[in-house]
Write a structure and sequence with these properties.
This protein is α+β, with helices and mostly antiparallel strands and 423 residues long. The chain has a single domain, classed as Cytochrome P450 (Cytochrome p450, Orthogonal Bundle), CATH 1.10.630.10. It contains 17 helices and 12 strands. The strands form 4 sheets. A 5-stranded mixed β-sheet has the order 1-2-8-5-3. Strands 4-12-9 form a 3-stranded antiparallel β-sheet. A two-stranded antiparallel sheet has the order 6-7. A hairpin with an 8-residue loop joins strand 10 and strand 11. It is globular and about 60 Å long. The protein binds protoporphyrin IX containing FE. The site of protoporphyrin IX containing FE has 29 residues, from helix 12, helix 13 and helix 17. Belongs to the cytochrome P450 family.
Length: 423
């Protein structure tokens, strides 16, 4: 999203900036991660905010939890299909390609996809994955545990969600490096708006997945996501091969980096709040609550956009048909109108209504229960096997205003007992 800012951040800070003129996408606001002080000022002073680019185009931003909730629940007025993910519809890949993914669909097409996929991601079918996920986490930690150190991102946060996804799809684990490279290339293409690079990846992924679908059909592989999607029926209709490929493209994009980033920034948050970490070592049954607070605190998907389908008022501002609206989930998850002491990390917060999985409504994260399960099992095994964790170097932030994540985090620890599944 290369654009010149209308103001100089070198001479402005989150407390002195003229919020009316702020271009929140300017990378200089994001050098230290999400700009929470600025978000707080925007929630208070310009909660529905217009930014005009030098070329005359512009976009709205909404920062309050309630406005994000409202927009997310009204897909008739706030369309995804007219440009739901990014501000410029063709920014990363052409909108027509994006529209093959359900994140960028409106009803009734979205409803059909969602019904088919929801059958696969029911809480009951997700719960059955726990044992396999625990075995995977155990194997992953086994690889480095004796050394008492690791790079938490590449050794833990990356392989676990990617491996879970590949296992779900029924594709060979030997292909993990290929998948990793694809996700890195997509992440980079999204970050620097390199549409040809993203299209190359989608092309390669499509070819690979078509082969896998053919192989699994021939071998009658049982119970893989591919086969369940192939056989799932809604109103007598099934997904065709191209549609299944698009679903996997979406899962690789939506289900992978997100879980990785929450795992990595989640551990960093706990290291920055040692009293919470000690409580969890003493009583791991606090983990489900702690994970909700980690989700709220890190809210790794900072924003998604929608397009207005008619003139509409939000927060007293007149939004015109065709205008782009960016929902800042990272801000909604810290909204003081919803969370007492919103800037305090509190693992005892009762069921925080965070917006890490979006603002609710039709597009609410379909993988939320799977993500929660992966995070709980991963942190249970970390607490069990890695004691006295401390940073062994400076964590490296992914330079992005969209994904809040880490690209590296060296840690050291005292190895704990292995009480995994195989014992
Ligand atoms: C901590 C991890 C995760 C986070 C923070 C996250 C976040 C999100 C967000 C913010 C949205 C958009 C919601 C909206 O537009 O209203 C979304 C949608 C989605 N997510 Fe996740 N996600 C995570 C994990 C997963 C996993 C593990 C999967 C599946 C393997 C997944 C699959 C999806 C799908 C399919 C959608 C599109 C739903 C639709 O358009 O109806 N996500 N996610």
């Amino acid at each position: 999203m290369p654009r010149e800012s209308a103001m100089s951040i070198e001479t402005s800070t989150s407390t002195s900036a003229n919020v009316a003129e702020v271009d929140i996408f300017d990378p200089r606001w994001w050098v230290d991660g999400p700009p929470h002080e600025l978000f707080a000022r925007l929630r208070a002073e310009a909660p529905v905010h217009w930014y005009q680019n030098p070329d005359g185009t512009g976009y709205w931003s909404v920062f309050r939890h309630a406005d994000i909730h409202r927009i997310s629940h009204d897909s008739e007025t706030f369309s995804s299909a007219r440009g739901g993910v990014y501000i410029n519809p063709d920014q990363v890949v052409p909108l027509d390609v994006m529209r093959t993914m359900m994140l960028v669909m409106d009803p009734p097409q979205h409803t059909r996809y969602r019904k088919i996929l929801a059958k696969v991601f029911t809480p009951a079918s997700v719960a059955k994955l726990e044992e396999g996920i625990r075995a995977r986490v155990t194997r992953t930690i086994d690889k480095f545990i004796e050394t008492g150190s690791c790079d938490f991102v590449s050794d833990v946060a990356v392989p676990i969600p990617l491996g879970v996804l590949m296992e779900l799809m029924g594709v060979p684990e030997d292909d993990m490096q290929t998948w990793f490279d694809w996700t890195e290339r997509i992440e980079k293409a999204v970050r620097v708006s390199e549409s040809s690079a993203a299209l190359d990846v989608f092309g390669e992924m499509g070819g690979y997945l078509a082969q896998q679908i053919e192989r699994q059909t021939t071998e009658a592989v049982e119970d893989s996501l591919v086969m369940r999607l192939r056989n799932a029926e809604v109103d007598g209709e099934q997904l065709n091969e191209l549609e299944i490929v698009a679903v996997f493209g979406l899962l690789a994009f939506a289900g992978n980096d997100t879980t990785r980033n929450t795992t990595a920034t989640g551990l960093l948050t706990l290291l920055n709040h040692p009293e919470a970490l000690q409580e969890l070592y003493a009583d791991p049954s606090l983990l489900p609550g702690a994970i909700e607070e980690i989700l709220r605190w890190t809210t790794v998907v900072q924003w998604f956009a929608r397009t207005a389908t008619r003139d509409v008022e939000v927060g007293g501002k007149a939004i015109a048909e065709g205008d782009k609206i960016v929902m800042w989930y990272g801000s909604g998850s810290r909204d003081e109108a919803v969370f007492a002491d919103a800037d305090t990390f509190d693992i005892h917060r009762p069921k925080p209504d965070h917006q890490a999985f979006g603002g609710g409504g039709r597009h609410f994260c379909l993988g939320a229960s799977l993500a929660r399960l992966e995070l709980r099992v991963t942190f249970e095994e970390i607490l069990r096997r890695m004691k006295d964790i401390e940073l062994a170097g400076t964590p490296e932030l992914v330079p992005s205003h969209w994904a809040h994540g880490l690209s590296a985090m060296p840690i050291r620890f005292t190895p704990g007992p292995r009480l995994g599944l195989d014992d």
